[in-house]
Design brief:
Elements (H helix, E strand, L loop, with lengths): L5 E8 L3 H13 L9 E4 L17 E4 L1 H9 L12 E3 L1 E6 L10 E4 L9 E5 H14 L3 E3 L5 E4 L4 E5 L2 E10 L6 H5 L4 E17 L6 E7 L2 E7 L5 E8 H9 L2 H11 L7 E3 L4 E10 L3 E2 L2 E3 L5 E2 L7 H21 L7 H29 L4 H16 L1 H12 L17
Parallel strand pairs: 1-2, 1-11, 2-8, 5-13, 11-19
Antiparallel strand pairs: 3-7, 4-7, 5-6, 9-10, 10-11, 12-15, 12-16, 12-17, 13-14, 14-15, 17-20, 18-19
Helix pairs in contact: 1-3, 1-7, 2-7, 7-8
The chain binds flavin-adenine dinucleotide.
Flavin-adenine dinucleotide binds next to helix 1, strand 3, strand 12 and helix 7.
Length: about 425
Amino acid sequence: MSLEASRWDVLIVGGGPVGACAGALLQRAGGTARRPLRIALLEPVRAAPPAPHDALDVRVSAWSRASERILRAAGAWERIATQRIQPYERMCVWPAHLPARSPDALLFDAAHAGEPNLGTIAENRLVQCALLEAFVAAGGTVIPAQFSHLRIGEHDVQAQLGADVLHCSLLVGADGARSRVREAVGLAAQVESYGQSAIVANVATERPHERTAWQRFLGAGTLAFLPLADGASSIVWSVEEAQARERMALTPQQFEAALLEASDGVLGAVRLISERLALPLRSLRTERLAAARSALIGDAAHVVHPLAGQGVNLGLLDAAALAECVLDAQRRGEDPGAATVLRRYERWRKSELAPMTLAIDTFNRFLAHEGGPLAHLARHGLAWVNRSESLKRLFIAQALGLTGELPRAARGGEALS
Ligand SMILES: Cc1cc2nc3c(=O)[nH]c(=O)nc-3n(C[C@H](O)[C@H](O)[C@H](O)COP(=O)(O)OP(=O)(O)OC[C@H]3O[C@@H](n4cnc5c(N)ncnc54)[C@H](O)[C@@H]3O)c2cc1C
């Protein structure tokens, strides 16, 4: 296909879960039968969906209820093989000074909030592929390439791809934490290391996971066991960088012994059933989410500590909010890249993201560190939350992603328009 001088309404850079979701939401609901929205998505790495008998990937996420609804509206949820996903019904959080399964551990139960579950554990690749399929099925175009140069004009954006130039009214940066779009449109980011890495792996456990997400706040770091569909668990073990290097160098047997000790045996003996990956953890913030004819969504705009399992969930809310702003503008006959459209998106998501990212960082500072008045306060804080049904319900609503100003797609009912 020659792309020379091709014109698009929206050009999305990055086909991770967040970019693919924005594409699918816009392509399914945008335009009219006579003039559908023309949307192109640049993604150089096209992963194949997992085959039914493949072992489960190591990179999984906890997808909230809000995300499940957005994925439905994007036409992806029904494409996700049910045998590879695991809804979880409870979340048990306990600090290092309490034994595992202590009656003082903090337990969130979906049943207390009248919900069938608190969310779903699913492989990132499974969801990403389902979203890209939904985008293409709705008429979207995936271009397996990167731009070499961007030029932002008054009336359009031009993206150079080799000898070809793509013109679009709106450019969306969904190209992850190292976003080139962010740099090219001149939006600054503050990046700070948490001084930790997350070790992720899949493990078989002696005891069943009981459809529960288990999370222990250690002296320095956190350890989570997320329940998987095949009965195994995905671990996310955040520790200081030097410790992460030491643990990655352990033999599988030594690693399993260290994991048993760190988990206080909550699921009994553990056996590694996958590779181990160590991912350095950084926070990333941007003052602005939009510039001339361009908007940032997902990790291109914000990266948070994985302890609260919120990163991709916040990204899908960005995608749904941006899609809603663009679709509303289109209905009024406005240009999707107009400054008024992008200002609405930016104001909306900035006001939702600021308190959430602050809460996650405060949580990390309070609960993941040994000793001192903060740790003391955190321990009492957990017991306090545990005794209050209304606080627990508030935490459950946060975990479900059903607080704040939600985009229509996250409110359910599937319809965006
Ligand atoms: C250990 C760990 C556990 C986590 N667990 C959870 C969890 O339980 N729940 C949760 O909500 N979040 C979780 N997260 C966060 C989550 O993984 C990220 O927020 C999410 O992957 C971000 O998605 P994205 O689409 O914005 O970016 P990415 O997934 O980074 O995708 C970016 C895409 O852009 C493409 N790209 C890059 N550069 C270019 C370019 N120049 N041109 C074109 N394409 C480009 C890449 O190939 C990629 O496909 C976790 C993170 C970590 C590290």
